[in-house]
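Students often ask why we bother encoding 3D structure as a string. The short answer is that it lets us treat folding as translation between two languages. Here is a chain of 192 residues written in the first language.
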Amino acid sequence: MSPRSDPEFFDARYRADPDPWNFDTDWYEIRKRTLLLAMLPHPHYRAALEPGCANGHITTELARRCDHVTATDIAPRAVELTRARCREQPNVDVQNWGLGRIWHWENIFDLVLLSEVTYYLPADALTLAIEDMAAHLRPQTTVVLSHWRHTEKDHHLDGDEATRIALAALPHRSAARYVDDDVRIEVVTTVP
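And here it is in the second language, the structure alphabet:
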């Protein structure tokens, strides 16, 4: 199998199993979620953007700390699952969209969470997507990059390379960093 960024691949995974990456039970997933949420520098945000929301595990946690969360995924089934998980959280808006596609930046986000999503884009597409995003973010926006550090056949990039490319395309200053054998989490603040 080659690297993937097609909606049909992800949609088929979620239709076959509503938790295809074991977000509910895998210690890596549980631990990563806990770490990245604990690393957010502010207790509360006005508006968050979460591309690649999967089935909404992080989305529901973000909704407790944000006035509004825009969660997106390229897989229609993932969008349905996130809507179901967040049905009691009216401050969550779930849309069918993927990082690297055209986005109409009408909302002003003060938090962007890029967790386990950037390595699904080839390097040039990732650079363009982050540059486009950066052009629409205000200074002092918190951006979180969280990645699995191992090579995967479905990824265009490994987690460290995806993080390096994203950080190079995003004017920022570092706020926090965590790295171990499995996960790398970078929390940055945008600068003009």
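Translate back mentally: The mean pLDDT is 92. Keep this in mind for the problem set.
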